[in-house]
């Protein structure tokens, strides 16, 4: 972050204060994760239009959070607990930063609902995104959603609250961003299919036996994207694409049976919409998460993306397309079936998957055990249809316990 | 046209009369050409929403025009002259059709401006489209434009009249239709580049020597589209893509230097727009002119396209992309240079090209003489900047005479 070297923080901050009213003020939960970092890079390159007002991060990245505070001077930050707050305060000791440091779930909610913000970027991973996202929507905040688990687990609740509050969700997932961009100016009723593209993951060309014996290291070799470990494993199982079907279902209020998946290994076509007249409109870009982040932060406007290379259609050479293979990637099929339900099953799928993937990352189970253990959890689950928040919180806890028990029995 | 066999015409026509007010009423000039025919097929499949009120056709297709009249029962038709009108009347003699048969330029204009129509489809080829299109715009008609020469020759005049009359032009050219679809909901000011795709034509993989010796038969072997002879030769020289740059410039009010061409041999991506943030939105479809015709006839709505196969992204296999080669296809470069001017040069380019391509089709010149003779005409032309209609009509006549003289000297 060279642009700030040597400048006192408050001075830099003051530099964009005068036009404060035209500024988009942004809160970020998960600021030290992959998406959070890239969002801050985008904001750093557009300090005349974008401003950070609140940040929340985990306890394992306090050094980085302190650095972010030094650079972006938010009003408030949140960390998981008092210990982390003390450590952060110590790290900030020799700067003149004045800010509120909050803790725990309340702190996270305070960041999500900060009165100064126009936009909340939900960049934390997993089910933990549900509550702060709901709190922000209740306050009428626009959500830049990078936490797909929120819609997977609680899509029906989230979207009816969005409707009630008259706010909106701008997707950050590259596939959903693509669909959002393609739908501009069109009615969803004119759409016959949503087409989600996927890279196919690191095991796209592997045979069944090779996949069965895949190691954690193998699963973390994603061909295109640099992401967190959990989502990278989800890309290897194609569970990620399955979760995206559920996300798209709620986000675009669309029949899940009409959401299709196509493997596009170069990940240049990020997704597409098919109209009733057969015309398909798709969005292309380099596989760079900064692009959908940029889109979400500036929406409904577009701004110059000066940073890094641009896609040149003349230099594409070849884009290839393949049908997904449900036999080698059963997680996609499992999720596609769950996507058709409006029940607690999607929450259970997501929460159990979090536990199971963690067990795989810890090398407690094999890659091929992932779909097997997922199916076992789902088979045992007593669905609640059209669930409310309490049903979902309960299903979440049940799924984690049940997954843990099933994994224990497997090892 | 099986759906009508055995039914008396007026009865069929009456069948859709009751909902006349919700009906889109369409006039077509050039109804017996490739686009006109396909438009009538689309209309025939949607007789509850689309109705033909006026038709104009050339003198060499009176049998077909009579058949179209029998099927669609327009109010008026126009043919080139009194002889053709007499022949047509004889052909219609044993039917009970009552309609006005008009002739000549006045007849063409009467069809274009028919008081009952909401939409004029300009499906005639060449410079002849300019006058009736202008007449229709003056009457506030929406134009479904399949005659690109109108915008190439008189873009500035046409578009300022469109603006003045508050009407609009919906492009039928597949590339411009694609861009029109991609721009939906967006401001042209957010666009950095328009990307026109081209198949590369039948000589895409031919070397210079092969192209120099190309025959008329070779040039008429278009890899993807079935079109008229003149436009097929324009596809072989890439002049068609050059004319499309000029068309796009006026249609979208866009800087011609920022309009790019990419060769996409499968012609599945029909064109695209690139935003300032690097995101590219493109439109895909099978190479079937009925799709852009369908879009233009139903715009701003979309309707089911039941007729024929649909594009399935999973079955695409591979899309390839190439940079156009200006050395082997000098006509593209010539047109790209002319596109930068707001002068009579574009009209001269277009009119001279019509004469020169006709000479090639008559085997009076070789394929490689096309760009050479075009350049000679352009070199001799005294440009008029920001031309009015008279300047353009004059430039058109001059270009045809000059091209004829240059061709005579060459043979």
Q: What does this molecule look like?
A:
- Chain A is an alpha/beta fold and 411 residues long.
- Chain A folds into 2 domains: 3-171, Rossmann fold; 188-287 and 322-410, RNA polymerase sigma factor, region 2, helix turn helix motif (Rna Polymerase Sigma Factor, Chain: A, Orthogonal Bundle), CATH 1.10.1740.
- Chain A contains 17 helices and 12 strands.
- In chain A, the strands form 2 sheets. In chain A, strands 4-3-2-1-5-6-7 form a 7-stranded parallel β-sheet, with helices on both faces.
- In chain A, α6 links the parallel β5 and β6.
- In chain A, α5 (104-112) crosses α6 (130-138).
- The longest helix of chain A is centred in the last third of the chain and has 22 residues, at 389-410.
- The termini of chain A are far apart.
- Mean pLDDT of chain A is 92; it is low at 1-18.
